[in-house]
Design goal:
- By secondary structure, this protein is α/β, with parallel strands linked by helices.
- It has helices at 38-46, 91-94, 138-141, 144-154, 172-183, 196-200, 217-223, 272-278, 290-302, 320-328, and strands spanning 2-8, 11-16, 27-36, 55-56, 61-68, 78-81, 84-85, 105-106, 118-121, 129-131, 164-168, 188-193, 208-211, 230-235, 249-257, 281-284, 312-316, 334-339.
- It has 2 domains: 2-148 and 287-339, Alpha-Beta Complex (Quinone Oxidoreductase, Chain A, domain 1), CATH 3.90.180.10; 157-284, Rossmann fold (3-Layer(aba) Sandwich), CATH 3.40.50.
Length: 340
């Protein structure tokens, strides 16, 4: 079998190794689809705070069970894989926040991930596996993890008004977020980006596109006469909050700190007084919770969200670096490994 192994920053190699043995009470999953995330690229190029070397990458995956010692998960069953090995018994897990589990190990970060031919799951890790409905294609099911990240972020805002949302960044995550908000009945969803090319394709119908290549976001919003009308801001890129975003928001609005930033220092000083007087809510969100992963898979299978606008490119595991380069050059928004 093969594995995409990151030995150190900048050194990602595909190596051959023996197939893992079946863990006692566990399961072996043969991978069918593993989507490359831009976080995978960041890990290869610059590392990550949760990364441990050497590491098999990949945290978005779908596969078929080939061996099992669990009667509820028989050979031949297709499963989507929640990207965290969580305990299920700590306070965080019991409250539904598995992403905050005290003993959480993240596949592709501090635990070997899904960019390999066969992945073993110990008896205690089987709770991360979710059966894929028969009507759901593997290349769609593999989107459950990024969609779940969007759902987990929105779960922070229980009472938000579904008025005007501004998403900054027209990549895969920005596009998925836009599709989610439209499916949830938001009145207006705006996606802003510096690159007109990214706005031109692979966007859900009904989105307002905002080209900010020649003008700032506030300038463009003033042209649209909606400054002070934004209910929600979602930065789906690393520099999405590098401007006085609070100036364009409606009092009581919300900001999802969904994307991390480049570097160790904040990109811009935040005017705490203006956040205070406008009662702006900021909520951090990192990864996803298992309940949101289950919901995302159900939405994809039941037609609760339309992701048909995404054109995915399929590659083999041996071409993983080519796939990453395609994403870096913005040639595609999503690249899926389907040959292991």
């Amino acid at each position: 079998m093969k594995r995409a192994l990151l030995k150190q920053i900048g050194e990602l190699v595909v190596v051959k190794t023996r197939q893992p043995s079946l863990p006692p009470g566990g399961i072996l999953v043969a991978m069918e689809a593993g989507a490359i995330c831009r976080t995978d690229i960041k890990i290869v190029r610059r590392g990550h705070r949760d990364l441990a070397y050497p590491r098999v990458l990949g945290h978005e995956g779908v596969g078929v069970i080939i061996e099992s010692e669990n009667p509820l998960f028989k050979a031949g069953l297709r499963v989507a894989i929640y990207p965290g090995a969580y305990c299920g018994i700590c306070d965080a897990c019991k409250s539904g926040h598995t992403g905050r589990c005290r003993t959480l190990l993240i596949y592709g970060f501090n635990k070997d991930g899904f960019f390999q031919t066969v992945v073993p799951f110990a008896e205690g890790e089987i709770i991360s596996l979710v059966p894929v409905p028969l009507n759901l294609k593997k290349e769609v099911a593999v989107l459950a993890e990024p969609l779940a990240c969007c759902l987990s972020a929105m779960d922070k805002f229980k009472q938000i008004s579904k008025g005007v949302a501004l998403i900054i960044g027209a990549g895969a995550m920005g596009s998925l977020f836009a599709a989610l908000l439209l499916s949830e009945g938001w009145n207006r969803v705006i996606v802003a980006d510096l690159a007109p090319r990214r706005l031109a394709g692979e966007m859900p119908a009904g989105v307002t596109l905002l080209d900010v290549s020649k003008a700032t976001i506030p300038e463009r919003l003033r042209e649209m006469k909606i400054v002070g009308e934004i209910d929600l801001i979602i930065p789906a890129c690393s520099k999405g909050l590098s401007w006085p975003f609070w100036e364009v928001m409606k009092p009581g609005g919300c900001v999802s700190l969904f994307s991390g930033i480049d570097g160790e220092k904040p990109l811009a000083p935040v005017d705490i007084n203006k956040l205070h007087y406008r009662e702006i809510t900021l909520a951090g969100s990192y990864g996803c919770n298992k309940k949101d992963f289950d919901r995302a898979l159900g939405m994809l299978a039941g037609g609760g969200i339309d992701v048909s606008f995404l054109n995915t490119s399929s590659i083999s595991l041996t071409d993983i670096m080519k796939g990453m380069e395609m994403l870096e050059k913005h040639e595609m928004k999503k690249v899926i490994i389907d040959k292991f």
